[in-house]
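Much of what follows relies on a compact textual record of a protein's fold. The record below shows the convention in full:
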Amino acid sequence: MAIGLYFPTKSGATTSWVPLKQPVFPAVEPVDYPEQLTGETAGGTLYVQDKGTKRETFQLQFVRLGTTDRNNALTFFNTVKKSFNTFEYEDRNAVLHTVRWINDFDFQFVIEGRYSGSIDLRKETP
């Protein structure tokens, strides 16, 4: 299946990007509880205070995208204004997720007419 990014939603997209060249494997989808304070007593007892909620992310790695794909990705990045707007991400299994783009737009020129880079998406918790 092909992945896709749709703003604001797939059904009502005003801007979308479905890459001609799909991300490379492995498909990285970490889950974390990033806001936990931990401390350990002298006796070895561990205390944990959970301050946050579960965070799910999607890390998409692209290798040697063509200029058209890179420019379309940049247009999409500028439309959603990095993390400012949420949008829908359709994963390889055709499941839609409401996400935010959380990293910089950093697609490096690697060979004539080809760019490599990554996109980190953070899933919005309902």
In short: The chain is about 10% helix and 45% strand. Residues 4-22+59-123 form one domain. The chain has a mean pLDDT of 90. Helices lie at 67-80.
